[in-house]
Amino acid sequence: MIFCVEDDAGIRELMVYTLNASGFEAVGFPDGAALFQALENQKPQLIMLDIMLPGEDGISILKMLRSRNGTERIPVIMATAKGTEYDKVIALDSGADDYLSKPFGMTEMVSRVKAVLRRCDPGATKPVLRCGDLELKPGEHTVTVQGQRIQLTLKEYELLLKFMSSPGLVFTREQLLSSIWGTDFIGETRTVDVHIGTLRTKLGPCGSCIETVRGVGYRLGNQK
What we know:
Blueprint lengths: L1 E4 L3 H13 L4 E4 L2 H8 L6 E5 L7 H10 L8 E6 L3 H9 L4 E5 L3 H15 L8 E3 L2 E4 L4 E4 L2 E2 L4 H12 L5 E2 H9 L8 H14 L6 E4 L3 E4 L4
Parallel strand pairs: 1-2, 1-3, 3-4, 4-5
Antiparallel strand pairs: 6-7, 7-8, 8-9, 10-12, 11-12
Helix pairs in contact: 6-8
């Protein structure tokens, strides 16, 4: 199920129609209040969320989704104003998994939805990854530190998975932007730095395993 939050009834109906015709189940909502009411009864696979909404705007709604148990890991694609770099950076820094610039084509929308869902699919059983007291289970999509489960956003999880899948390998900020945020993302490398900072904080005593390689980027080091 995909939830589409868009206040323009015509656009909302077209999005829902296109997604249903493409093999998904989709329903639409005009604002954040209607979205959160629906979330009480059902958790979707993905949320399409417009930034410009009546009442609570899309960024505020996104932050609420990321702060609540049960919705913090739902993938979100934000609809941003065309050519507004600031909106894109704020959306991604706030936990969005991708964005679409308005006006966007329905074919592009479906492609973005499929790409995000592929990235979120835990897939088949995979070996557990460890670094000291830090443990990541790709098959279960879980992260624990000293046996305690840690809640991460999708981007934080993807960053950690990338590091733990290639321990010792240095990734530049540009490489991380391209692989985690998408090859067509045009933004500041501070987006990576912000997410690395929050990831380290959440990992607590294991945060130091993500090392900064001065002038280059980041890597997974040895946890002492």
